[in-house]
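Encoded backbone
================
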Amino acid sequence: MSQPSHKAIEHQASLWVVKIDNSPLSPQEHAEFMHWVKAKPEHKIAFERLARWQISINQLPELSASNITQVTPTYASKPKTAISLKILSPVAAIFCLLVITFVITARHQNPIAEPIIYQTEIGEQKTITLPDGSIVTLNTGSSLQAHYNNQTRAITLIQGEAFFEVFKDKKRPFEVTANNKMVRAVGTAFTVFAKKNSAIEVMVTEGRVELANTQQASSNTIAFLDQGQLAQLNAENNLQVSNVSANEIRQKLAWQQAMLQFNGEELAQVVTELSRYSGSTFIIASPALANKRIGGYFKANDVNAFLSTLTSQFNIDAHTDETGAIVLTER
């Protein structure tokens, strides 16, 4: 039997965090939680990290402030009778141990945590689990900053493209800012591409998101996007929305497998996309060639395989000039 992946463990831990935060566990749920936490050290680690952002100490009445103080004597102002974990039930005991860790951390950290920066190199993709259990997959040459606290889940996409799978939390909307535009969600999945011309592209693969302008003080909503919609929003907030099929979504997300799929796009568009993953510079010899339609399924950073396909199937020759740029000419 295969072992649970890191992603699966993070998801399980997130579910327990929300369940505990929303209401007291039933006896059966206590037993299930106990079994899950003790099953693997990775379970306890994931739960502790995620719960630090979510669980309120006030929702665990069996742990009073004085009890916590006594278990952490380094920070106690007056000695009192320490709580004994031996007299608690196994479930209560593990809750004590976990919550004590959370409280110590929370007391001695700035209420607003330092932003965390994630990035990828050219040709690299990376999947990251954020502090709340949301998952982000960064595309090539991308970077983002995540800023979390008890009220905020704020992401700044500094450059590039990312796919977000948002853990549902109605108390803290998930906000992604890119090029002075904001994408706001509660629990959904979507991509955001921050383009170099200050435009953004947003594609929703699950749920619904709100597009907003961060430069307006009020009434900043531009539009709402539903599953299967793709929006192009330029620097002047001119919006174009189109519907995308399941096949088109798979095509646009092929980069997650380090692949690129084209179905009749112009050569100029194809080589622009390939440059993002390879760092190569392309020169197209004529406007007519730039408009030539190209189709195929290519490894994102394998320029040689791409050029071989152009030569064998599209009658296009390629050579490298003195600057290292790849010059494309029609045969």
Summary: Confidence is low (pLDDT under 50) at residues 55-91, 100-112. The chain has three domains: 6-107, 116-245, 258-330. The longest helix spans residues 90-107. The two ends are 55 Å apart (CA to CA).
